[in-house]
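Tutorial, part two.
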Amino acid sequence: MNKKILPYVMMLLCFAFAKAQLESSQWFFGEHAGIDFRSGTIAPTTISQMQTGEGCATLSDEDGNLLFYTDGSTVYNRNHEIMVNGTGLKGNSSSTSSAVAVPFPESNNLFYIFTVDTDDLVYRLAEGMHYSIVDMTLDNGNGAILQDSKNTRVLERTSEKLTAIENGTNTGYWIITQFEDKFYSYELTASGLSMSPVVSQVDPFIELLDFFITNVDVAAMRGYIKVNSSGTKLAAAHFSNNTLADFNGITSILEARSLAYAQGGELYIYDFDNNTGIVSNPVPLLIREDEGSYYGIEFSPDGNYLYAEVDYLRPSTTSIFEFVGGEIAQFNLNATDIAASKRTIYQDQNQLFRGALQLGIDGKIYHSRINQNALSVISNPNDNNIPVNYGFNEQPLQPGTLSVYGLPIFVQSFFQEFEIKLENGCDGDAITYSLETNTQEYNVVWDFGDPALGSANSSSDREGIIEFSAAGNYEVTAVVSTLFQTITLAKTITIYPQVQINDLDLNLTECDLGPNATFFDLSGIAASINPNQDQNVSIHETRDAAIDNTNAINATLPFLINSSEQTLYIRVANENCYQIVELLLTIVKCPVQVFNTLTPNDDGANDSLQINGLRDIYDDFRISIFNRYGRLVWNGDATTANWDGTSNIAGTNGDLLPAGTYYYVIQLNDPEVNDPAGYIYLTY
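Running the prediction step on this input gives:
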């Protein structure tokens, strides 16, 4: 059966990330700090050799084994030693997102490290975006930077922003950076990195100041960009958005720097197309007039919310700025007015909020704050209709280690969500169910919300087919078990009443009018098949046309077919459902019809013998005419003209026969039809 697919409502009771592969299961950041997710319980570590104020990246293999980590300048191998040729990369530990590590598609051993530079004194001296390639087969499997790839320039000038996401065809990745009012999307596939970026020009314009006082133009370059794990949304945080005019007449270094930090920044959300790399539809969430500085951002695991950390700073005459307070803001991305959906889930005046927000594979968002021996944690970022919990310094780090501003960034599609894929249907339809995810290691138990199904109401299959017992609304739940947690997903679907159809023999036959052609009367089909006046009936020549409800046949007119049979498709539909049934039209060879009066008097009526349904239908027929004494007086076939009352038998050929009663025998030479015989009146 077929069904009409309608928009549906999704209800998510608890929607979180699960264990994908474990590429993001080890983090190294800050002052020798690290955490390890692999056991299912987060374990702080002390093995990191890295000291970084901001940018960092870590990469493990899909089983969670460490490959390398970096601050954008130095790369450390799995043994926490400096990787061969792993120094002097053109990132910077003071760059927001100094580096991101991206697997080379179709390779288990090659990895790109993309870097973006900064310069804490004069940002105009920053060296832009580069890449270097790690080959893990070198140095006895500890890896090394390939010298001929090291610091390959990608973009001459960019900001401190960098992120990566899998492309829409799952054949590679987009690596994205931003500068001024442009996003640059570079695609990495098995063919290598395309050096021709997709450039999207969108608001806002973030000016790179040409100003003589140092450490002023840097502030506007700070802040993260993030793409949600499904690759449909992109968010950008700009710590400040200063213009050259803001500094007219200012000569004091302290005053200039204070203004640069404290005048407010920009927070935007965009649409992202992971098929094309295009960034579009800029929506301002917080702007300079809101007086906040924006740095760390992250999407909730289910993609429904965006979180941002906000610092409120005040210009000062004695220090670079005065810290007023900070907050964690949440935006509902499904709201009609996203900016107006802002709510504050946490605030304090303890210390700077400025720091990364980074999703973990346990479904929590972690927040780094400067010089803390712990990370703060948003433990339920999917909201789930209960207060969102922000735990200040909730996740301890090992003694002697500290968080600073940054946390490692990853290819965002390493964090993959689960989504129930189940459509509304019609009573009696076989409905396909599945979970949409790239994750491989999970178990699921389904409850279809239909107790009348008995044991079929539940399943532990990842995908399958279910037929509900009757029309109605059903809440389908999927309980997903992962390494870290149990996740309950739910979705309400509607099973609509099926159409009603009378049980009929849907075969029509008509006599052949020759050759293999005739007209069919379809005008009574709708009334005979449809027991419900609220239903619509249409007839179509192809199944696809019936499904699409296009090119319906005008059933009020005779329908001509030119073959021995043809199948038509009847579509019976109600408001939500339809069924398609087949109507077989068949042309048959019917008995011939002989007009048994012959008057060959040239008056234009019955001047020759008329036989309907013979010529062009029976190709091998023969006709014999006998007089009342049984003597053959005429014979013919498809090559002769109709009998006109004369004889064509030798000896009397061409003679006009006398009026009277004659007899005919027609041999059709068709085993499925009886040969007709009868009499004819010949008059003048």
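The chain has three helices and 49 strands. In part three we will examine how such features are distributed along the chain.
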